[in-house]
Every structure is written in structure tokens, then in C-alpha cells.
């Protein structure tokens, strides 16, 4: 499915929340033209979004915004691991992995054609 008003990319926009040692939950906004990304808990402060073949090399753009959702000084790193996995990590300002810092944090992934 291609986004009608911008056929140059597929998009996934969501609010993501993670509590304790559970997998993140998301509220996905329409249109979701990438598909159903499955979010899992990998380790403290380490979360994986998986969808087979969805994240094309050199064509995947992504961002996360923790503003107002995390403890001040929390750092997020959001990366493309491979064609199947996006990785989201949260750390304290001292670089220690930390859970429960995603409280309706905004994220977006675009995959360009």
C-alpha cells in the first residue's frame, strides 16, 4: 500500500511506550504503509522492531523523540540493524542501559523507493 499523498516512501508513525521489562507497546497512526512491525524486549534498554524485508539499506530514514516522555538526560539511539530489524536503545546520561523511558515517545520510519 502506498501513501496516497506522497508515493515516494512508505511510512510508519507511532507513539511507543515501554514499562518494566515488557515489550514496548505502540499506538500506530494511519496511514501505516510499511506494515505491522512487531516490537520486542531484547535486554535492558534494548528493543527490536521486526518486519521481514521492510527496512531497505540506504533508503530507510527514522527518528525518535523522547521530549517530555523520559527522565531528563535519557538518550535514545534508533538504528536500522538490517532489512528485517530496527533497534531502539535507551541509556542514562552515564551511558548505562535503562528501561521504562519510553512513555508515548514519538517515532517515525520512512522507507523510500
Structural class: mainly beta
Strand order of the largest sheet: 2-1-8-5
What is the mean pLDDT?
A: 94
Biggest sheet, open or closed, and with what strands and sense? 4 strands, antiparallel
How many domains make up the 3D coordinates? 1
Task: Please state roughly what percent of the residues sit in beta strands, choosing from under 5%, 5-15%, 15-25%, 25-35%, 35-45% or over 45%.
Answer: over 45%
Radius of gyration: 14 Å
From N to C, what is the helix and strand string? EEEEEEEE
What would the principal axes of the Cα set say about the shape? globular
Helix fraction bin: under 10%
Measure the end-to-end span.
Answer: 13 Å
Low-confidence stretches at least 5 residues in length (pLDDT < 50)?
none
Secondary structure tally: strands: 8
> Number of DSSP helices?
0
What does this structure look like?
The chain starts with 8 loop residues before the first strand and ends with a strand. The protein has strands at residues 9-18, 25-29, 38-43, 46-50, 60-65, 75-80, 85-91, 102-112. The relative contact order is 0.29. The radius of gyration is 14 Å and the shape is globular. By secondary structure, the protein is an all-beta fold. The model has no long low-confidence stretch (mean pLDDT 94). It contains no helices and eight strands. It has one domain. It is 0% helix and 50% strand. The chain has a four-stranded antiparallel beta sheet with strand order 2-1-8-5, with no helix packed on it.
Amino acid at each position: 500500500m502506498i501513501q496516497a499523498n506522497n508515493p515516494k516512501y512508505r511510512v510508519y508513525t507511532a507513539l511507543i511506550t515501554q514499562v518494566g521489562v515488557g515489550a514496548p507497546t505502540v499506538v500506530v497512526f494511519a496511514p501505516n504503509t510499511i506494515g505491522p512491525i512487531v516490537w520486542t524486549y531484547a535486554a535492558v534498554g534494548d528493543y527490536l522492531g521486526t518486519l521481514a524485508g521492510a527496512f531497505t539499506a540506504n533508503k530507510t530514514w527514522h527518528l525518535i523523540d523522547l521530549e517530555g516522555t523520559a527522565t531528563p538526560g535519557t538518550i535514545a539511539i534508533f538504528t536500522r540493524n538490517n532489512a528485517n530489524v530496527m533497534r531502539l536503545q535507551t541509556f542514562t546520561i552515564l551511558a548505562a542501559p535503562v528501561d521504562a523511558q519510553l512513555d508515548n515517545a514519538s517515532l517515525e520510519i520512512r522507507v523510500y523507493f
